[in-house]
Amino acid sequence: MKTFVQQLGRIRLQLSNKTQVIGWGMKPDEAKLFFIGQKKTVVTLFGYSSSYEDENAMLEIVRQVISRYSPETTLINIGATRGGLGAAYPVAKSMGFTTAGIVTTIALNYPEEISHAVDYVCFIEDNQWGGKLPNSSELSATSQAMVDCSDILIGIGGGEICVDEMLAGREQGKPVEFYPAEINHVWAIRRAKRLGLPEPDTFNGAAHDVFFKR
Q1: Which of 33, 122, 176, 206 gives 20 to 30 Å between its CA and that of 148?
Q2: Is the model more confident about 14 or about 152?
Q3: Whole-angstrom Cα distance, residue 110 to residue 124?
Q4: Phi then psi for 43, rounded to 5 degrees?
């Protein structure tokens, strides 16, 4: 059941006419059917939803990675929002790629955060942003959709949700690549203070510890 604020978010997105929403409360299987219907290899980028310490370096990694693929046969998928890794959407568009995004219905609370450079958006009915369900090894609906709809998974930095999703992709036998990148230091320090946590001694993100190979 969507909240009143989410209903307003839907209306705002419909009026903006900036992107094509495939579904406002989809199940993972429904999103998968849409992606299969595109008849393209789906390259999904995983990373921070908040800003990167060096955004230009992150975008250069994106350019180098996706330049290995053909825009005619490849769709670039991220998390639909414009912040953090979502800054890669305009880069992908400028290189001729069709873009897509998978995101929880919680994002309808923040319609202004949906990227204007994403062609198709699948809102997944979910009450969390992603990762595993509480006290469970099962993925939330949003993360399950991200994994199921992806053919190739590429991480550029990333936190716990990225770890859950990329590990699940690897368990399914899908190719997984990882490139180290630091989260914005000021943001990470402020977040730690807000949560009453010690100041971080590293800004590499949880995915770095799992996937980075020296």
Answers
A1: 206
A2: 152
A3: 15
A4: -100, 115
